Amino acid sequence: MDKRRQENQRVRDQLLAALIEFAGRKDWSKVTVTELVEQAGVARASFYRNFSSVEEVVEYGIEQVTQRYHEDMPDGDFDSRARLEFEFRFYQEHADLVLAFHHAKAGTSLLDLITDCEIEARGDMPASSLSRYELYFSAGAFYNVLLCWLEAGMPEPPDVMAEAFARMANGEKL
């Protein structure tokens, strides 16, 4: 990667990190470009070289998580239990970003990300199929369990959470 691209990547990452710092303190929709560049320690021109709005920084954060998710996903078919463990471990590693999205009231974007990952893992269902609701039920349940676990400080390891979630999804008591 050439120096200019590296510098732009560094600026984008600094702006995302600065935006995450606002989470829980200020709604991201109310963060101004001025506040963001000051927090990030970058020039206003650098912001506009990379983004046209604060919302684009949020989109960039989602793209980064999505890209890392797909890069980290093990190759080949793996059962739902192994996939769940991978997902809990992945989101544990990115807990700061996930919680920042949640605290900044940008959780819908995160739920969309989780749903898209479910669709990719399990395949999209035909619009006429009732089974398509299972996918959205599973994604929503996972999202809520994930948030509860992350906000609690992740006291259980990912493998225990994967097992517990699989049991709950099968209607079993814990």
UniProtKB/TrEMBL annotation:
Keyword DNA-binding: yes
Source organism superkingdom: Bacteria
GO molecular function terms noted in the UniProt entry: DNA binding
UniProt domain HTH tetR-type: residue ranges: 9-69
Keywords (A to Z) from UniProt: DNA-binding
DNA-binding region range list: 32-51
Name of the protein: TetR/AcrR family transcriptional regulator
Organism (species): Enteroscipio rubneri
